[in-house]
Amino acid sequence: MIVLEGVKKSFGKKKILTGVNLKINEGSSLVIIGRSGTGKSVLIKCILALETYDEGTIHINKIENSNKNNKTFYDQFGMLFQGGALFDSIPIWENISFRLLRGNQKISRSDAKQLASEKLKLVGLNSDIIDLYPSELSGGMQKRVALARAIAGDPKVIFFDEPTTGLDPIMANVINRLIREIVVEMGVTAITITHDINSTRIIADDVAMLDSGKVQWKGEINHLDNSGNKMVDQFINGLATGPISNNY
Amino acid sequence: MIFIRGIGKTTLHALSGIGRVFLFMANILANLLTRPFYFKELGHSLINIGYFSLPVVGLTTFFTGGALALQIFAGGARFNAEAVVPQIVAIGLVRELGPVLVGLMIAARVTSSIAAEIATMKVTEQLNALKTLSTNPIKYLVIPRVLAAIIVLPILVSIGNIIGIFGGYIVSTRALDFNWISYLQSTVSFLELSDITSSLIKASAFGGIASLMGCYFGIHSGQGARGVGEATRSSVEAAAIFILVANFALTGALF
Question: Which residues of B touch A81 (CB under 8 A)?
């Protein structure tokens, strides 16, 4: 279980998170929705200890999150970055097996290549691209490779940062369904941030709405359309007027 | 008053920048001797910084050696001391011009490349991706590059010194009518071991500075294309200035 209590984060005078309280149950898929610039990416970077937070606590399975003095901290996580963040200078198979070629989970290069091939199939790609470099792939294929990398070390928790941004609607749907399949089949805890309602409906078990630096509503996906929260109603219906501020 | 405030602000900014560089160095040292070690990345960096810099180092030192021979001949002729060309070319290149010019060429070629590469990795979240894949960017990206430059620069400078002396030799024997045997004898007999060791010490220091600046500005770059551009420019400026300052300090210490 991941528990956030009173998490605050500012960049200079700009307050991004003003007291986030959130519980994410083990094995569930939580989607955090909200407008661009409301601190969704900052929030997951705080959970992953990629950003320090100013106040509050974040506990992962009752242990406060920190990459300091804990060499295995990141072994439990997989992360799909918004832009893929594939390493340009190494081929696809080394990208996918990166974690497994070094560090605590190290395996042989031949096993790593085999595993990369299996993970590629899992995300619907043919293994004949395994020796290509990221720049030789289309945006959609890069996203799938990044997804394969995120699941390669069999993590317990996977983060998806805007998984469908920049993709055409068909490819976006393919990625959404892949994420849902992976979450169900691997039984992992998944945290996705998006402002895409279609993605939310496919991926989520639970939904949290972030606005003004706080969680404004949290509930099951079945309750999204009748949440009783005006901010959620405005957001999911894309209404120009309502309680959500136009100021960032 | 505004002028004095401006001086104070600039001074504080410069001092805090130097402080941050020293903290960065301390971070490198803290990670240097602990596992894991990335020998493959070290090998790549040795080839990138060393082998692929050979053409630019060779051309720079060859033409500098040739020009130095012409200048010393012209200057020496004013007090009938043309015969000192081989000795001055040798000592000028080995003690001073070889390490400094190679250091500056490495700053232009390698520092800029390291800064741009790491800054681009930061902008595209590849540095964060490294962390989430249980890999420390200091260990994986910085230490191999800094170590490789410290190791390979003395080799590059040695090769550059030989090529520079050869440039002086070609000009002196072809254009200035020096006897080739006496030119070589004068060069070899004049140089002392301390000349060569000071050259190699400077080379290692300049290699460390050049790669450190590339890594520092890359890791601390701003966002977007502008951030990458500024990181690259700042890294080359800082490397060139620190190399020249270190050259002065080391020359004083090793004189």
Answer: 125, 128-129
B-interface mutation test, from A48, A68, A72, A102, most B Cβ less than 10 A away: A102
User: Do B134 and A104 lie within an 8 Å CB cutoff?
Assistant: yes
Longest dimension (CA), chain B: 69
> End-to-end CA distance of chain A, in Å?
31
pLDDT at B159: 97
pLDDT values of chain B reduced to their tens digit, one per residue, 255 residues: 788 888 998 899 889 988 999 999 999 999 998 888 899 999 999 999 999 999 999 999 999 999 999 999 999 888 888 888 999 999 999 999 999 999 999 999 999 999 999 999 999 999 999 999 989 999 999 999 999 999 999 999 999 999 999 999 999 999 998 999 999 999 999 989 999 999 999 999 999 999 999 999 999 999 999 999 999 999 999 999 999 999 999 999 987
B206 burial type by CB count under 10 A (0-12 exposed, 13-18 middle, 19+ buried) = buried
Q: Which residues contact A70 (CB under 8 A, 6 or more apart)?
A: none
Compute how many other C-beta atoms are within 10 angstroms of the C-beta atom of residue B123. 19
CA-based nearest residue to A211, from A190, A236, A175? A236
Please count the residues of chain B. 255
CA atoms of A141 and A84, how far apart (whole Å): 10
Nearest CA in chain B to A99: B133
Instruction: Report which DSSP code applies to B236.
Output: H
A74/chain B closest Cα distance in angstroms: 5
Residue B169 to residue B167: CA distance in whole angstroms: 5
Mean pLDDT score of chain A: 89
Nearest to A85 among B36, B38, B126 (CB): B126
Among B145, B184, B154, residue whose Cα is nearest residue B44: B145
Round to whole Å and give the CA distance between B120 and B145. 16
Listed as own residue / partner, the contacts of A54-57 with beta carbons closer than 8 Å and 24 or more positions apart are A54/A8, A54/A9, A54/A10, A55/A6, A55/A7, A55/A8, A55/A19, A56/A4, A56/A5, A56/A6, A56/A7, A56/A8, A56/A19, A56/A20, A57/A3, A57/A4, A57/A5, A57/A6, A57/A7
Q: How many helices (H) and strands (E) does chain B have?
A: 12, 0
Give the number of other CB atoms < 10 A from CB of residue A226: 10
Task: Enter the ipTM.
Answer: 0.89
What single-letter amino acid sits at B108? A
Say which of B36, B38, B129 has its CB closest to residue A81.
B129
Contact A103 B134 (CB under 8 A): yes
For residue B133, which residues of chain A lie inside 8 Å, CB to CB? 74, 98-99, 149, 153
**How many contacts (CB atoms, under 8 Å) link A and B?**
52
